[in-house]
Amino acid sequence: MESAFDFADDLGPVKIIHVHEPRMALRGILVVDNVATGPAIGGLRMAPDVSTAECFRLARAMTLKNAAAGLPHGGGKSVLFGDPKMPVARKEELIRAFAQALRGEDMYIFGPDMGTDERCMAWVRDEIGRAIGLPRVLGGIPLDEIGATGWGIAQAVAAALPYCGFDLAGARVVVQGFGAVGRHAAHFLVAEGAQLVACADSGGGTHHPGGLDLAALMAHKAGGLGVREFPGGTPVSAEELLAIPCDIWIPAARPDVINESNQHRLATRLVPQGANIPITAAAEDALHRRGVLCLPDFIANAGGVICGALEHRGAAESQVFAVIAEKIRANTEHTLARARDRQIAPRTAAVEMAVERLRAAMALRRFGSFSTAPGRR
Asked: What backbone phi and psi angles, to 5 degrees, belong to 306?
């Protein structure tokens, strides 16, 4: 079994907890990476094939994301083994039990992620009182419903366009992962004149070079049907989706969908990373070398956690989009200007920026990344 020491560096992780209850077939993992800036916020991901390594990588991405966004929160992540499409009663049982097992870990605040939503966060809050991304009826700001992450991606794209050499009007967009993040990103970009020419969900994709009818596609998807069956496009496979010529290619699903074996197939100019860790480091380096601008995940997709942090502090929903736009545009512009001026990759520039902010916070804490609250050890 992997331990914290397999991943440890001077930033973290603070702790890794494995939860196992054989009678319930409950298996889950929590990684609290760094809490120098405050209690960690990070989503609860549910999938059959999650792992400790993936959970740590996601937690570190949250550390960098929260630091880059200037939020008073550290980074963490939790994962729960299971099919997110399981019967609702069974899913509720597992999530409630997992939350109870982590009741005492008050340096971690649950949020929604792939395979979980506002209702799942309501279950967590009911059990332990520590969750963001809640339904409105509980006083929350339902970040998936309003499209907070997708809105942030659109802001990152707008800030990056001066570095790309094309305008958003008429730009061809491909979205891999037509869920809460991908469909909202498509909506906001199309509203500004872009064309969605292809997209995919877990069952496959659809393509129309003249532009898909987004309203009809969203209605089709809302009816419980897969993207591949959409009558307004031609079915394509996941691999075919990679090679569709476009201006903006948005990965908004699982980790490492773009890797060393397939990055050469991408025919695009801009990759705003909607998912967490959707591109391997080697593939991102290769894309940078051939002139494809990759906006790092923890810069481009920070809209959701910014929304969650605002909710946690009692902000009004009407404030959310303006704050997300301000933070993500500024961070994108800062990252790309730094990358240009120093002739380095955008990810290198973004990591440097986030780590500088993180170390400044750590220097003010008694135990650096391991501090939780005044007087606690």
From this structure: -60, -45
Question: Band of the pLDDT at 371, cuts 50, 70, 90?
Answer: low
Residue 239 phi, psi (nearest 5): -70, -40
> Which residues participate in catalysis according to the annotation?
77
What's the CA gap between 154 and 186, in Å, rounded?
Answer: 8
Domains of the chain and any CATH numbers: 4-64+74-140 (3.40.50.10860), 148-303+331-343 (3.40.50.720)
Is residue 32 very low, low, confident or very high in pLDDT (cuts 50, 70, 90)?
very high
Which candidate, 225, 174, 184, places its Cα nearest to that of 202?
A: 225
Q: How far is CA 100 from the centre of its chain?
A: 25
Model confidence at 369, pLDDT cuts 50, 70, 90, reads low
- Determine contact, residues 164/346, Cβ cutoff 8 Å: no
Tell me, what DSSP letter sits at residue 368? Answer: G
C-beta of residue 13 within 8 angstroms of C-beta of residue 59: yes
**pLDDT surpasses 70 at 223:** yes
